[in-house]
Task: inverse folding
C-alpha cells in the first residue's frame, strides 16, 4: 500500500481534483489531501481581489502550516503537489526532511510563467511529472533545472467530460471555450476575417472575452466563464468545436515553447464533440487527421475546414465517434493516474535501494 499526501485544488472540473480522485481509487493507494484552494481562494470582483492580495502572505503561511501538519500526522510514503503555486522552496525542503520524496505534477507550458516563487520551487522537487511532452528533453537546457522530469500527458475526467453519444441539439455552429489571451484573440479575429460569413453562429465561452467583444463580430455570443459539467454541455452545443494551443510564449522577454496539447485535446473527444485541433507534431500522434480530428495551422485553414465540415453532419458524426473511440478510455485521467503512480512507486523504490537515490 502506497500512502500519498496530495496537495492541490479541489473544485469540480479542476485537473488536480480529477487526478487526486483517480489516484485514490487505485487499489494499492491510501490517500490524504490538503485543498490548496481552501487557503488560496480566487475571486472575480475587484474589492475581493484587492483583499486577497493583502492577505496572500498570511494565506500562504496557513497553507504551509496545514501541509506540514498533514505530513506529520499522515506520514506518507510520497507527497504529490499539483502545480503548487503556494508551495515555496523552503516548505519543500521541510517536507523532504521527513524522508518522503516530494513530487510535482506540473500541468502548464512553462514553470517560469507563474512567478519567481514557483519557478524557484520547481527545481527543488525530487521528481517533476509534467503533462507536456517537450518538457523532459528541455528541462535542463531551456528551464535550467537539474532534477528529473518525465511526461504523463493530460487526460479527460470521466465524471465531468464523458458523454456516451453526440448531443441531440446544437445551438451554435462553432464554439471555443477558453479564457481570453492575446493569441486566442488574434486567432478569432483572423478567423472572422477569413470566414467572412455572418450567418455562422459562433460562441466563445471563458473569462475575459466580454471585455474584448467590441473587437470581434457583434453577432457572436459570449456566455462567460464555463466550468465543470457546463463546460462539456456548452461545447457539445456546437456543431464544430475549436481546439487552439498557445504555440510560443514570451517569458521575461525570452521565447519559450508553448503548448502542443491542452486538456481539451482529450476532453472534446470524450464529450463526443466533432472538433478541429490546431496542428502540432504531438497531436498528430494522438489522433488521425484524416479519420478522427482534422488539424489546422492558421486561421485561414481553420475557416476553410469550418466551411468544409459545417454542412456535412454525417461526416462530423463519424469523425466524432472515431475520436471518441480513440480517447475512451485510453486518454482518461484514471489511465494517466496508473502511469503517475508507477513513476511515484519507482521513485520510492529507488530510495530503498542503496546507491539508487542519487
Result:
Amino acid at each position: 500500500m502506497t500512502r500519498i499526501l496530495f496537495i492541490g485544488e479541489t473544485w469540480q472540473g479542476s485537473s488536480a481534483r480529477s487526478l487526486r480522485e483517480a489516484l485514490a481509487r487505485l487499489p494499492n493507494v491510501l490517500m490524504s489531501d490538503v485543498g490548496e484552494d481552501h487557503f488560496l481562494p480566487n475571486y472575480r470582483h475587484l474589492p475581493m481581489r484587492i483583499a486577497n492580495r493583502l492577505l496572500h502572505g498570511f494565506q500562504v503561511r496557513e497553507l504551509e502550516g496545514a501541509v506540514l501538519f498533514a505530513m506529520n500526522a499522515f506520514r506518507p510514503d510520497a507527497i504529490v503537489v499539483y502545480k503548487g503555486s503556494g508551495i515555496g522552496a523552503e516548505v519543500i525542503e521541510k517536507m523532504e526532511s521527513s524522508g518522503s520524496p516530494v513530487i510535482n505534477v506540473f500541468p502548464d507550458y512553462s514553470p517560469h510563467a507563474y512567478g519567481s516563487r514557483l519557478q524557484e520551487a520547481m527545481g527543488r522537487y525530487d521528481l517533476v511529472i509534467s503533462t507536456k511532452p517537450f518538457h523532459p528533453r528541455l528541462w535542463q537546457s531551456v528551464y535550467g533545472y537539474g532534477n528529473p522530469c518525465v511526461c504523463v500527458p493530460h487526460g479527460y475526467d470521466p465524471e465531468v467530460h464523458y458523454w456516451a453519444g453526440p448531443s441531440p441539439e446544437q445551438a451554435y455552429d462553432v464554439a471555443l471555450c477558453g479564457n481570453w489571451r492575446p493569441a486566442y484573440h488574434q486567432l478569432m479575429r483572423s478567423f472572422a476575417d477569413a470566414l467572412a460569413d455572418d450567418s455562422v453562429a459562433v460562441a466563445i465561452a471563458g473569462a475575459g472575452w466580454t471585455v474584448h467583444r467590441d473587437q470581434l463580430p457583434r453577432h457572436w455570443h459570449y456566455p462567460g466563464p464555463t466550468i465543470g459539467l457546463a463546460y462539456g454541455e456548452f461545447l457539445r452545443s456546437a456543431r464544430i468545436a475549436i481546439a487552439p494551443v498557445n504555440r510560443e510564449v514570451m517569458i521575461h522577454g525570452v521565447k519559450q515553447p508553448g503548448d502542443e496539447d491542452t486538456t481539451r485535446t482529450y476532453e472534446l473527444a470524450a464529450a463526443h464533440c466533432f472538433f478541429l485541433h490546431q496542428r502540432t507534431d504531438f497531436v498528430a500522434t494522438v489522433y488521425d487527421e484524416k479519420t478522427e480530428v482534422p488539424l489546422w495551422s492558421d486561421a485561414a485553414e481553420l475557416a476553410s475546414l469550418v466551411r468544409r465540415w459545417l454542412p456535412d453532419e454525417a461526416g462530423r458524426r463519424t469523425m466524432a465517434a472515431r475520436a471518441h473511440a480513440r480517447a475512451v478510455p485510453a486518454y482518461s485521467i484514471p489511465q494517466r493516474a496508473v502511469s503517475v503512480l508507477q513513476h511515484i512507486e519507482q521513485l520510492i523504490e529507488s530510495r530503498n535501494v542503496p546507491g539508487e537515490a542519487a
Remarks:
- The two ends are 24 Å apart (CA to CA).
